[in-house]
Amino acid sequence: MIGLVVVTSMPAIETDGLTKRFGADVLAVDDLDLTVEEGEVFGFLGPNGAGKSTTINVLLDFVRPTAGSARVLGLDAQADAAAIRERIGVLPEGGELYDRLTGREHLEWIARTNDLQESVDYEATLDRVGLTAEEAARPVGGYSKGMAQRLAFGMAILGEPDLLLLDEPSSGLDPTGMQEMRTIIREEADRGATVFFSSHILGEVESVCDRLGIMNEGRLVTTGTIDALRDELDLDASVSIEVDAVPDGLAADIESNEGVHAVETDGTTLTISVANPTRKIDAIRRVDERATVLDVRSTDTSLEQLFNTYTGNGEGEPEPSAAGFAGDETAETAAEVGR
Amino acid sequence: MSVADVVSKDILDVRRAKIIWAVAGLYTLVTAVFVYWGTQARPPEGWSGVYMALWNFVFVGAMFVPAIALVGAYLAIAGERESGSIKYLLSTPIQRRDVVLGKYVSRATVVAASLVVAFVVAAILSLVWFSEFPAGVFVGLALLTIAFALAYVAVAITISAATATRSRAMGGVLGFYFVTNLLILFGQLSILGALEYVLNELLGLGVGDDPIQLVGMLVSPTHTYLNTTLLAFPDGFEEAMLGGQTTATAWYVEPEAALVILLAWTVVPLALGVWRFERADLG
């Protein structure tokens, strides 16, 4: 007799009506229903204070929910906290490492607490996160913020955990470091790990995530694939190019290209608003064919502005044009050009 | 074993800290000075000066040992909560109970080790300076003093487990030190002196000395320790020192009862610390 085998994949993370209050008037997480499937890379987005860290802290049993429940790898976040931690790698946010211990000692300690001393390769892990053996031999008190973050990332991925919980993993990293981190996240996903990571910078999430969830003021505003959200939110990115002189008709010419929303000319500076960041390099090439490029500044829409724009929160008036995004709050990263 | 993981890492960490060695070094120095002072002091009729040195050693210890223990342990958990490194600690399979117990074991070990150094120095000096060396008294006092230190380590760990910042932990241990040590040690000015004054002089209740002694032990590990040291000194020495007056009649203020209370001063705070820390939000 042939039975039918129904394979139901268990969610890596599942919260049900999760609510967390601090004191009487702070509602950090409000009735959150979130599901992260096994094997996916899930980007958990939201402005600072949206409740992302509190949610992660509940998953790690650092804080206890006021109502609702959370399950990690099918286990109860509170009752089975120790069993969960044997299977996950964590990069907590805003935690200092131990100043008096060396980088290597940090890794050895993670290995010992997880009973992994026999199986882990410290050198390979250090190499992956970009720390040399000499750096690993120094006390962490002397590390730069970026080095500390690299070490913390190494501690998280040590021993091939089933699930990586990364809270703002790119904080303190330079653009190269962020790129390397994204590469490692991809590699971890390829070997089968589920990756759940939070960020307040959209640009850092979109290139690596299978799916996104956006949180604002304690509530999950939306979830979906990048493409679905992009359509929904009509994301903009822009690049400012300074040239020696703007040839006639250049602006109109570029504006007619696919993926370009608007071109503004201000003296010798062209500000080109594009549908997504991958279009920026096309725009730069086209300008370069016709004029001498003196400087390039790339601008990404910050999530905070998106929230201001699309949820009507905050003081910013809704103005979803490139010019509206080029204000003071805009995150500008010249090094992001050409990504 | 998770407690062992906490202990090994914490000892690795804390033995590289300088403050604990500075305080322990000061204690060793002060102990040495008081041993020397014992050579100059006039002991009671028929007793060697080494007993005077040990008597002084107890009183120096009564003030210094809690300070060493509290300084050595008050940041053990609260410091990690403030810096956020507790999140790394608890991202491993280590449980919260293991953190409290492991921190206690590691800090107790470090504090006890620094006391042993002071005892060894005092023993060597005593051997050199005095004709008589009562090894039994020495070892007895050393063990009681370590038990005393471990009680204050337990209290400091508990305060550390119950507070989220360095400043609150420091406030907590300072308050505890004042109330249970400085305000206990100085006779008529002490809390017990005040209690006796209120009960007997103002209210005229005629409460005996024994119940007040018991209250003293229940509120102060220092008071308890001083009562236990009678176990180590030879019979008759205390009477000789205090001018023939006899103390302690009720069973519950006998030195043996004091020893039980001293051990309880380790167990009860730690249990409280575990209970509090397991329920804390580590945001």
UniProtKB/TrEMBL annotation, chain B:
Record keywords, A-Z:
Membrane, Transmembrane, Transmembrane helix
Organism domain of life? Archaea
**Which is one Pfam family of this protein?**
ABC2_membrane_2
A GO-annotated cellular component: plasma membrane
A GO MF annotation of the entry reads:
ABC-type transporter activity
Please tell me whether the keyword Membrane is annotated for this protein.
yes
Write out the transmembrane intervals: 19-37, 57-77, 104-130, 136-162, 174-195, 257-277
Q: Which PANTHER family match?
A: INTEGRAL MEMBRANE PROTEIN-RELATED, MEMBRANE PROTEIN
Record protein name field: ABC-2 type transporter
